[in-house]
Design goal:
The chain has about 350 residues and is mainly alpha-helical. Among the domains are: about 90 residues, no CATH class; about 50 residues, no CATH class. The chain has a two-stranded antiparallel sheet. Strand 1 and strand 2 form a beta hairpin. It is extended, with a radius of gyration of 30 Å. It starts with a helix and ends with a strand.
């Protein structure tokens, strides 16, 4: 009887272990049990400035995100013991991970992207002022460890295509690679055009006082305002995904290679604009690229546009006001003649 109970206990333990292994394959990323503490929602501290810092990590979101397979100390390399001391170092995204992507022969690293970013206008330079260094974004400002999302079946049939890949490739490797590729197929970036404009505007390019303090040009100070007044900005505001956003013009497919407009490597440099506009406009020419993408309608900068806008506004409001006035005059005339509106067999005017 005791042997029977022992065997039953062993079988149950084995089944539980198999179930946990099947339903929680991503838990291997947390081998050192960091989530044992960081899973609590209100875990954090109050810093010296009186600001609350939250150190909670949502277990479900993290394990299903792009970095869900990466162990915590792959990024937080400065942690040497558990429980660890207060963290005073920042994560270096250029570190080499111990994760080897499918079909790759070496470990993964963001080093190439970080190098491009550091050379761009957003990278911190030795001669930058303290205010400029503080204002410039880091990796986490734009990248929030997004979840993997399957591309719509109307564009790529996920299950059918993946089933064909499995004929030759191992399921685990090819599925991870396919998931990553289709995730990138959704958009040029993981954000919509409106979200990109909001991201560039928030805390930086949309803050004219900050731009003025950093000593940027007057044109750059008004960049967000003038973009929103342009045809591109208005279409994006209305929800268009085809209209150009900030990245569409100011970066190539590398996304991070944004430079000042007078830099020969910039996509908006005078000699590169023809190729940049080609991405959206097939029938572009040397005259087309002279059209102002950030048109200013101030009287001091562009008096023609300024007075043309005033004239068009007067024309628009004049036409609408005239039609409304004509409507009220017609109603008054009919009432004077004893004609009233009645809802009988349809709306009509009857004596």
């Amino acid at each position: 009887m005791k042997l029977k109970h022992l065997l039953m206990g062993m079988i149950c333990t084995a089944l539980i272990g198999i179930g946990l292994a099947h339903f929680s394959p991503a838990l291997a990323a947390d081998k050192e049990n960091c989530l044992m503490c960081h899973k609590y929602r209100y875990m954090g501290i109050i810093d010296e400035a009186g600001k609350r810092k939250n150190f909670n990590v949502n277990e479900h979101l993290f394990l299903n995100s792009i970095h869900g397979k990466v162990a915590c100390r792959e990024c937080h390399t400065y942690i040497k013991k558990f429980p660890h001391d207060p963290v005073k170092e920042k994560v270096n995204c250029a570190n080499e991970c111990h994760v080897k992507p499918p079909f790759a022969e070496k470990n993964f690293s963001h080093k190439k992207i970080v190098k491009i970013f550091d050379e761009s206008i957003h990278g911190i330079k030795p001669d930058d002022s303290p205010e400029m260094k503080k204002a410039k974004p880091n990796c986490k400002y734009c990248h929030q460890n997004p979840l993997y999302q399957k591309v719509e079946n109307t564009r790529v049939s996920f299950d059918k295509t993946l089933a064909r890949c499995r004929n030759c490739h191992e399921e685990k490797g090819v599925e991870q690679a396919y998931k990553h590729i289709t995730h990138r197929l959704r958009h040029k970036t993981t954000r919509s055009s409106r979200e990109i404009v909001a991201l560039c505007s928030k805390n930086c390019h949309g803050d004219e006082s900050l731009m003025k303090k950093l000593g940027v040009s007057e044109e750059a100070q008004e960049a967000v305002e003038t973009y929103k007044e342009s045809i591109h900005g208005k279409a994006t505001t209305l929800g268009s995904e085809q209209s150009a956003d900030c990245i569409s013009c100011h970066a190539s497919s590398l996304i991070h290679d944004i430079y000042k407009k007078d830099n020969p490597k910039a996509s908006v440099f005078k000699d590169n604009r023809l190729e940049t506009c080609k991405v959206c406009h097939a029938n572009r020419n040397k005259h087309f690229i002279k059209i102002a993408v950030h048109p200013s309608i101030k009287s001091t900068k562009n008096p023609f546009l300024f007075f043309a806008e005033i004239g068009l506004r007067i024309l628009l409001y004049g036409v609408v006001s005239g039609l409304l006035g004509l409507l009220f005059l017609e109603i008054f005339r009919r009432k004077r003649d004893g004609i009233r509106m009645r809802l009988k067999a349809g709306t009509s005017w009857r004596r």
